[in-house]
């Protein structure tokens, strides 16, 4: 069975596990960049300052990444819906259950 994705809704991108995955990836990058990798910028900063810096870095990276993904969704919907190009095609087949 072939399925074609004609439109991606913004709500499915913003309020799903996808946005949580981007948030936790941003958090991991921030913690690794501030706490794990020895960076001379963060040496004189105390622990609470580092936590605050990691939080702000996480928030900034998350917002920038989500804005980029939302822009890509708009571009995809424009090309598929307005211009009429072919969307992504998924080939699926049913697998019988084995008990």
Structural notes for this entry:
The protein has one domain (2-91). It contains three helices and two strands, in the order βαααβ. The protein has helices at 10-14, 17-36, 47-83; strands at residues 2-5, 88-91. Helix 2 runs antiparallel to helix 3. The longest helix is centred in the middle third of the chain and has 37 residues, at 47-83.
In short:
The protein has three helices and two strands. It has helices spanning 10-14, 17-36, 47-83; strands at residues 2-5, 88-91.
Overall strand count: 2
Low-pLDDT stretches: none
Largest sheet, spatial ordering of strands: 1-2
Dominant shape: elongated
From the structure above, extract its key features.
mainly alpha, two-stranded antiparallel ribbon, 99 residues
How are the elements arranged and paired?
Layout: E1 2-5, H1 10-14, H2 17-36, H3 47-83, E2 88-91
Antiparallel strand pairs: 1-2
Helix pairs in contact: 2-3
